[in-house]
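REQUEST ID: PR-0412
SUBMITTED BY: lab tech R.K.
PRIORITY: routine
TASK: structure prediction, single protein chain
INPUT:
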Amino acid sequence: WVDEKGAPIAGVTFTNFDGANVWLDCAAKPKTRWLDRRGLFCIFDYVFRQLECVRCSAAVPESNALSRKLLEQGGFEYEARLVRAAPHGEDMLIHRLFKEDCRWLTG
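STATUS: complete
OUTPUT:
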């Protein structure tokens, strides 16, 4: 994602694709509105239609409330806790979204 001047403001990566699952990571400049319905469609069209995954996973440090909220509002559900797997001894929370639960590919 770029702003009106072409400067990068956000990005999404897809890693560790194994045929059934892919890990999703995103980063954005603070206080930047970058993700809209069209962007969500593009992300999940790639994951579920092009890659043909049955699920998508994301990991977020427990203290990152903003990212957790974004995941949950996007339809991801909390799945597991990796104890002390994040920097500074913090827990990492795993979220997942199954293809059949993805509302961004319809209507």
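NOTES: The longest strand covers residues 21-28.
REVIEWED BY: pending
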